[in-house]
């Protein structure tokens, strides 16, 4: 029997990563969504993104959203920041943590942030200095840890080297992202082994998209290896504007249900998460992609 953690931390990315591809979602709906998530037992919620509205117009209201949400004690509200201007805006908005984002592959780095991997690391240095000055924790996203839509398979050692570089810059945690959702458990295991040789396991998180239906099996693999932080998106919302065909992140509801079945504590109320997911998907005219959410909804209607 595999050794599993007693508890995991769920890092909710639905309000940012989940909604950044949705053209028609109001500021009010975003605020209500985050407020509902805040009541669920989640302790980490990514609430906005301070990137150029030219590139991600859906996140142009992040300042308004972060200033108007009803913040709950014990919940950390974070924001994605690509540069110093983004950091300054996140600070003004009241973000308690920021995230920077880099790539494991050169092709994705060029398409996503218009520079090489080495250039991106240099760009992060002034942000890290400011964050240190203001005592703001910084999380590092690392995309394409399994495959790149432009370069093909990503060598595990390459992922490990960049994860080590981000840690060296001062990131307290590295979120390992299977951006196009093509990873399978054996490949994910080899990647985590390589990264764990350079970065302590307690400083790693996983961020899996479910394009090929492998996200939960990959999460289980990661759990057996000592990972205890999981990124997920309520209702399975999301995608990536620079990775055509990439589906949403693994659904928070599905992760909670998996953990319940494994006897792993999350501290998060499944029904409240599902309810928040039904609300936001109804507002944007979509169905949740979460199997757990759909099963709960079907059960709910049967009991009425």
UniProtKB/TrEMBL annotation:
PROSITE patterns: PYR_CT. Its EC number is 4.1.3.4. Keywords: Lyase, Metal-binding. It is an enzyme of class 4 (lyase). Residues 8-274 form the Pyruvate carboxyltransferase domain. Signal peptide: none annotated. GO terms for biological process: ketone body biosynthetic process; L-leucine catabolic process. Transmembrane segments: none annotated. Pathway: Metabolic intermediate metabolism; (S)-3-hydroxy-3-methylglutaryl-CoA degradation; acetoacetate from (S)-3-hydroxy-3-methylglutaryl-CoA: step 1/1. It holds the Pfam family HMGL-like. One of its GO terms (molecular function) is hydroxymethylglutaryl-CoA lyase activity. InterPro entries: Aldolase_TIM, HMGL, PYR_CT. Belongs to the HMG-CoA lyase family. This is hydroxymethylglutaryl-CoA lyase. It comes from Photobacterium marinum.
